[in-house]
Write a structure and sequence with these properties.
- By secondary structure, this protein is of the alpha/beta class.
- The protein has four domains: about 100 residues, no CATH class; about 90 residues, Nucleic acid-binding proteins (OB fold (Dihydrolipoamide Acetyltransferase, E2P), Beta Barrel), CATH 2.40.50; about 190 residues, 3-Layer(aba) Sandwich (Rossmann fold); about 160 residues, P-loop containing nucleotide triphosphate hydrolases (Rossmann fold, 3-Layer(aba) Sandwich).
- It is built from 26 helices and 22 strands.
- The strands form four sheets. The chain has a seven-stranded mixed sheet, with no helix packed on it. Strands 12-13-11-14-15-10-16 form a seven-stranded parallel sheet, sandwiched between helices.
- Helix 18 links the parallel strand 19 and strand 20.
- Helix 6 crosses helix 8, helix 9 packs antiparallel against helix 11 and helix 20 runs antiparallel to helix 21.
- It is globular.
- The C terminus is likely disordered.
- The chain binds adenosine-5'-diphosphate and magnesium ion.
- Magnesium ion binds next to helix 11.
- Adenosine-5'-diphosphate (ADP) binds next to helix 11.
Length: about 700
C-alpha cells in the first residue's frame, strides 16, 4: 500500500515535469506522432527500412551464449516467408515462453540483407495464433520524460477525458456559420477523443498537418478562447476610469514651436492617436512602435506635456540607467523652457536621496519623473499620476508594466503608453498582445543617410583600425561594441578591456573610452558625457549602449562577435549611427564556425535596413515565442494554432468572440471557463 502511494506520487511528479496537473492539461497534451498497429503487413513484398507489424510462427530460438550476447529468433508469417529477429537483451522469462510452434506479433524496422529479412530489437508480444485481433485505433506517441511510460500517459489522458466537461460557449452551428463551413464541426470532447485515439484507417498525414476536422476544431477552440480573452480584457478596461487630459491644445502648440524640427507626418499621426486616447475617460493602453531613430522619445514627451498641462504627473520608465539619463538630459532643455519640474529616480541613488524624491513625488512637487525599475518599487507612490510611459517595453515583464497602473491611491488608473523599436507583425500583435492598441511611426526623420553594412572576418580586425583612424580624422566618432557573454560577466568585461587596450595602442593620439556594466553609474555617465561632447572619439562598450543612445556625430559602428547578438539587438546597435549627415557604416566582425541560425541573422542584417523587414526575418528564424520574449514575460504561446497556417481564421473567430461577449456578457461562466482552459492563470496576470 505504502509502496503504491509512493509510485503514484512519483508519476505525479513526472506528470508535473511535463506540465500536466489538471484534467485540461492532460486533455491538451498532444501526441507527437502516431504509430499504426491496426494492420499486418505480409512479408512477401516489404522493402528495406520499412516499419511494419506482422504475425510470426516461431521456427527456432537461439538464446545468448558465452560467445554471443544477442538472442536470435527466426519465425515465418502466414504465407511462410521467414524473418529473423535479433534481440540485444532478453529476460529468462521471455525465453521460457518463446517456444517453436508458438506465435508472436512483432513490430519494428525490417532490414533486407543477403541472408534474407531481419528485424533488430523488435517489439514482440505472444499471441494465440494467426488471426488474433488487431488494435482498432492508431497508437499515439506523446512527448514524455524519463521514467514515464507511454502507456501510463495514455491511461491518464483517457481518464481525464472521461472526467472532463469542456465548456462550449459557441454552439456547433455558430462555429460553422462563423467559419463558413459546409459541415458542422465535432464538439470539443469528441475532437479531443479523436486526437488521442484516432480510429484505424485515419490518414496520419492529415493528423500531422492538423488538417483533420477534429484537429481543426481544437485549433478553432484555442483561437476563440484567445480572442475572447483579449476582448474581455478590453471590455473590462473600458469599465475603468482614467483622468481625462489634453483638451487644452495651447501647451502642446507652444511645445511644438520650441522644437528645432518639424514632426514627420507619421509622428503627427501617432501623436494625434495618443492625444485622442488621453482625452478619453478610460485608461489608454497603447503601444508605440517605430524603428530605431524614428523619433519616439519626442512623441512620448509631447504626450507627457499634455498630462502635465492638465496638472497630472508623468512617469517615464527606461530599462537602463544610461537610457534614463539620456531621456532626462534630452528632455531637459524643453522642460526648462516650459517651466516643468522633473527629476530622475534610479537604483544607484543614495537611499536618502531616493527617500527625498519619493516624498516630492508623493506631494506632487514633481511633474515628470524619469526612472528605471526603481520607479516600480512599492514605496513609490504618486499623488496624481496621469500617464506612465515605458520605453523599450519588451525589456520589462508584464507584471512590471502593469504595476505602474496602481501607483495612484484612488480608483483612477493612469494612461499607459509603451514604446518599442521591435515592430511586431499585425497578426502576432492581434493574437498575442493583451488588449493593446498599436500606433506605428513608419517614417524616419529627414536627412538620414542609409548605413552601409559590412561583414568582416574577425581575423581582419587589424585592418579595421585604419578605418577607425580615418573616421576620427574626418572628425567623426566610433562605437566599438563587445558582446555580452551571458555565462560570464567577468569574461565579458575582460574582452571589452582587451579591445580597449588594443584600440588605445593601435590609435595613438586618439582618445578612446570604455564603458561597461560594472562601472558605477557616475563613471558611466562621465564616459558617456565625454563621448557625447566629442572628447572621447572611440567608445568601447559592452551592450550597455544597446538602447537609445543618440550621438549624431558617430558614423562608424563596429560590432565584435556579431554572431552572438540577436537580430533585434544588431539592428538597434546599427541604428546608433546614421543619425547625422555623414555616410555611416556598420562593420560586423564575426568569428569562425558560424551556426546556421547565426548565419541567417548576419545575412538578414546585411540585406535589410528596415526594422519591419528585420522583425519579419527574426520571427521566421526564431518563431513567435522567442521573438516576443513570451517565455520571460509569462504569456502563453498558442499551442496548436499556427498563425502562418491558421491566420485566416483569426478574423472570423474574433468577430464570433465579440458577438458572444456582447450577447452573454464578460462574466458568462462558459466564456470564463473556456478562457481558463486555454490560458490557465495567464489571464489573471494580464488582467488588463
Ligand atoms: P527612437 O525612436 O529610436 O527612440 P529618438 O526619439 O531617440 O528615436 O530620435 C532620434 C533622433 O531624431 C533624436 O536626436 C531626435 O531629436 C531626432 N528627431 C526626432 N524627430 C525628429 C524630426 N521630426 N525631425 C528631425 N529630427 C528628429
Ligand atoms: Mg528610443
Amino acid at each position: 500500500m505504502a509502496l503504491q502511494s509512493t509510485t503514484a506520487d512519483e508519476s505525479d511528479r513526472r506528470f508535473k515535469l511535463l506540465g500536466l496537473v489538471s484534467d485540461v492539461d492532460f486533455a491538451l497534451h498532444w501526441p507527437l506522432r502516431y504509430e499504426d498497429w491496426t494492420r499486418l503487413t505480409p512479408l512477401k513484398n516489404v522493402y528495406d527500412g520499412q516499419i511494419l507489424q506482422c504475425d510470426l510462427k516461431i521456427i527456432s530460438v537461439q538464446p545468448p551464449s558465452r560467445g554471443k550476447q544477442t538472442c536470435r529468433v527466426v519465425g515465418a508469417d502466414a504465407s511462410g516467408v521467414s524473418l529473423g529477429l535479433t534481440f540485444f537483451k532478453v529476460y529468462p522469462s521471455q525465453l521460457a515462453q518463446w517456444q517453436p510452434g508458438r506465435h508472436m506479433r512483432v513490430q519494428g524496422e525490417v532490414k533486407r540483407g543477403v541472408l534474407g529479412l531481419d528485424m533488430p530489437h523488435p517489439h514482440v508480444r505472444l499471441i494465440k495464433g494467426f488471426g488474433a485481433p488487431l488494435e482498432k485505433h492508431l497508437t499515439p506517441v506523446y512527448p514524455s520524460t524519463a521514467g514515464l511510460s507511454q502507456w501510463a500517459l495514455a491511461r491518464a489522458i483517457t481518464q481525464s477525458l472521461d472526467r472532463l466537461d469542456w465548456p462550449e460557449p459557441a454552439s456547433a452551428s455558430m462555429l460553422q456559420q462563423a467559419l463558413g463551413l459546409d459541415h458542422p464541426l465535432p464538439n470539443m470532447l469528441a475532437a479531443l477523443r479523436f486526437v488521442h485515439r484516432p480510429p484505424a484507417g485515419v490518414d496520419v498525414a492529415h493528423l500531422a498537418e492538423k488538417s483533420d476536422p477534429h484537429c481543426f476544431r481544437v485549433i478553432c477552440d484555442e483561437l476563440l478562447a484567445q480572442q475572447l480573452g483579449l476582448q474581455r480584457a478590453r471590455m473590462r478596461r473600458a469599465a475603468r476610469a482614467a483622468p481625462t487630459m489634453g483638451r487644452e491644445k495651447a501647451g502642446l502648440a507652444r511645445a511644438l514651436s520650441c522644437l528645432p524640427f518639424q514632426l514627420t507626418r507619421a509622428q503627427q499621426r501617432v501623436l494625434a492617436e495618443i492625444t485622442e486616447d488621453l482625452s478619453r475617460a478610460i485608461p489608454m493602453h497603447r503601444l508605440l512602435q517605430g524603428d530605431v531613430g524614428s523619433g519616439k522619445t519626442i512623441i512620448a514627451l509631447l504626450a507627457a506635456l499634455q498630462a502635465v498641462d492638465d496638472g497630472y504627473q508623468v512617469a517615464l520608465l527606461a530599462p537602463t540607467e544610461v537610457l534614463a539619463d539620456q531621456h532626462a538630459a534630452k528632455c531637459l532643455p524643453l522642460l526648462e523652457k516650459l517651466g516643468i519640474s522633473s527629476a530622475k529616480l534610479t537604483g544607484s541613488l543614495k537611499e536618502s536621496e531616493k527617500r527625498r524624491l519619493r516624498e516630492s513625488i508623493a506631494r506632487a512637487e514633481l511633474d515628470l519623473v524619469f526612472g528605471t525599475h526603481a520607479l516600480l518599487e512599492e514605496k513609490v507612490r504618486f499623488s496624481n499620476l496621469g500617464l506612465a510611459i515605458v520605453d523599450e517595453q519588451h525589456r520589462f515583464g508584464v507584471k512590471q508594466r502593469l504595476s505602474l497602473r496602481h501607483k495612484r491611491d484612488d480608483a483612477m488608473e493612469p494612461h499607459l503608453l509603451m514604446m518599442s523599436a521591435t515592430p511586431i507583425p499585425r497578426s502576432l500583435a492581434m493574437s498575442y498582445l493583451a488588449d493593446l492598441d498599436v500606433s506605428v511611426i513608419d517614417e524616419l526623420p529627414p536627412g538620414r543617410s542609409p548605413i552601409r553594412t559590412r561583414l568582416l572576418q574577425a581575423s581582419r580586425r587589424m585592418d579595421l583600425m585604419r578605418w577607425v583612424r580615418q573616421e576620427v580624422e574626418a572628425s567623426h566618432q566610433v562605437y566599438w561594441v563587445c558582446p555580452l557573454i551571458e555565462e560570464s560577466e567577468a569574461l565579458d568585461l575582460r574582452h571589452a578591456q582587451e579591445s580597449f587596450a588594443q584600440l588605445t595602442e593601435a590609435l595613438p593620439g586618439i582618445e578612446v573610452g570604455l564603458v561597461h556594466g560594472r562601472l558605477s553609474s557616475q563613471d558611466k555617465q562621465t564616459v558617456m558625457d565625454a563621448f557625447q561632447a566629442g572628447q572621447v572619439k572611440v567608445l568601447v562598450a559592452t551592450t550597455v549602449i544597446e538602447v537609445g543612445v543618440d550621438v549624431p556625430q558617430a558614423s562608424l559602428m563596429v560590432i565584435e562577435h556579431a554572431e552572438r547578438f540577436g537580430l533585434a539587438q544588431l539592428h538597434q546597435l546599427r541604428g546608433r549611427v546614421g543619425r547625422g549627415r555623414a555616410q555611416s557604416q556598420c562593420v560586423l566582425l564575426y568569428g569562425e564556425a558560424l551556426g546556421a541560425s547565426a548565419k541567417a541573422r548576419l545575412k538578414a542584417i546585411y540585406q535589410h535596413q528596415d526594422g519591419f523587414e528585420i522583425a519579419r526575418e527574426d520571427l521566421r528564424i526564431r518563431g513567435p515565442g522567442e521573438f516576443l520574449g513570451l517565455r520571460q514575460s509569462g504569456l502563453s504561446l498558442l499551442r496548436y494554432a499556427d498563425l502562418e497556417r491558421d491566420g485566416q481564421y483569426l478574423n472570423p473567430l474574433r468577430a464570433l468572440a465579440g458577438e458572444l461577449l456582447e450577447r452573454k456578457g464578460c462574466e458568462d461562466p462558459a466564456i470564463t471557463a473556456l478562457i481558463a482552459c486555454w490560458q490557465g492563470g495567464v489571464e489573471d496576470r494580464l488582467k488588463a
